[in-house]
Amino acid sequence: MSSMVLTIVLLSYNTREATRVALDQLIQCTDIPFRLIVLDNGSTDGSVEELKSWTSGHPDHIRLIVSPDNLGFAQGVQRALEERVPDSFIALVNSDVVVGPHWASRLMAHFTDTDTVGAVGPVGRAIGGRQDYARFHGPAEYRDDTWPPGDDYRRFVESLYWSRRGCFCTVKSLSGSCLVISPDAYRLVGGLDPRMNFGAEDLDWSLRARIAGYDLIMADDTYVWHQGSASWDPETPGRANEAWAWFNAKWANQFPQDWDLLTFSQEETTHPPFILRQRCSQPLPEIQPLKLNLGSGSFPLSNYVNCDIRDVPGVDCLTDVRHLPFPNSCAREVLASHLLEHLPPEDTEGTLREWVRVLAPGGKMVIIVPDLEYCARRYLDKTWSATLFSRIIFGDQGFEENLHRTAFDEEILTYFLRHVGLTQVTRHNLSPEWQLMLTAVKPD
């Protein structure tokens, strides 16, 4: 198991007083080696000035990032994680969460040497779903409507721990309000989906983690206080609707039964605005392998998950194709049509290995690029002009995103496909003839 070092990410947005309390508690109560990264999301309530003053007193543990704009939760977290301690565990803590004594070591104790645990979350106030303490255990034995919570809260946290030490259960999803992710799960599952920037991102990540084979653990012995919805503004409901619409579109028709049952039940909670309603320990149905259309741009294909770094109509998954947000062996086909030539030469092997990672055994990879040998012959025999040759091989020089950075012929591309472990490399005729199309198979 990786070393017990924790990168804590906290996002601030117009929650000056709550953020100060949250940070004070994190400094006082985090009982393992940590680095705290605070990202302010364009606050206008004086948060930035207070954060600068506060972080100056903790230079060894705190990194402050100030964004002029509200990046949202998912994108803000990913920006903050660019500063994380390498190979560390990752904790997401909302700015309106007040942790209790020894919260970090108690959550970390639920990770095991088997590496099957992908993430751990606590029970608490206003978390929702199976983590909603009041819904499943009755009222907490302290005044949970007092802010900031006082000594009675801390006494309750300690009493709960010693009465339930080591107790946990496996759940379908975990709230992002307070969540610890293992470094292995973060590497395999990836980060939060940026298209779910104001909601559903934690549910989406939970589902991806379970598909990748990880367990999600609710620590029944660790409790946190969550105010709930402190940073929401009047625009948030509309953005949240967009996030949930994206979640629905992303996962619809991907499972052989009602996918809604994968994460939701009809159980009510005491905090319905913040609910993630799930049932515990139900098996995940076998997923239908995906068909990925990488670099789809403005030409999406039906029955494919269309992936591109550009936010244009028809794109289903907004992602850098060099770092795909999909689990291992989930795709029966990976199609990259006129994409590979746009990447720098030094990225070719690593990118192909990433595509092989998501390809299921027996799955097919389809690569289409300009054929350097064919184009060169047409230029040398004077069939083509220099202008035509340059446009096809080097791309559209007027737009950065249309530049071609690498050229391939059949021999070079075949070498790379075999080098990353693919077999049965086959060339196919394609019109126009200047295109090179190769297919290859991932061995069983």
From TrEMBL:
Xref: InterPro entries: Glyco_trans_2-like, Methyltransf_11, Nucleotide-diphossugar_trans, SAM-dependent_MTases_sf
One Pfam entry name: Methyltransf_11
Residue span(s) of domain Methyltransferase type: 318-367
Coiled coil feature spans: none
GO MF term set: S-adenosylmethionine-dependent methyltransferase activity
Domain Glycosyltransferase 2-like: 7-146
Domain of life the protein comes from: Bacteria
Entry protein name: Glycosyl transferase family 2
